[in-house]
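Hi R.,

As promised on Friday, here is the backbone we talked about, encoded as structure tokens. Could you run it through your design pipeline when you get a chance and send me back a sequence?
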């Protein structure tokens, strides 16, 4: 069995979209989410902007794949592509 790829989420303390994204990931079996609080660390905010070219949170990576934000994560799940991605398969 392949180990689940690393899940990284850029977020802030008070972000309802971050909470929603985390709830969906946990419902799909993700135990470990590496959260990067960009509201506490300006250097990480700059890193997020450079990596994603987006200013909004959450910005989610599953392995090396940039999923995007909460809406994109939900769309990926609805399309049946989230679970394969979490299983380490390319979609």
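Update: got your reply. Pasting your designed sequence below so it's all in one thread:
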């Amino acid at each position: 069995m392949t180990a689940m790829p690393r899940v990284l989420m850029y977020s802030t303390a008070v972000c309802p979209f971050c909470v929603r994204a985390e709830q969906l990931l946990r419902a799909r079996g993700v135990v470990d989410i590496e959260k990067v609080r960009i509201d506490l660390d300006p250097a990480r905010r700059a890193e997020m902007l450079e990596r994603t070219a987006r200013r909004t949170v959450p910005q989610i990576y599953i392995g090396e794949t940039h999923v995007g934000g909460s809406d994109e994560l939900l769309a990926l799940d609805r399309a049946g592509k989230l679970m394969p991605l979490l299983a380490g398969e390319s979609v």
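One thing I noticed while checking it: The longest strand covers residues 7-11.

Thanks again,
M.
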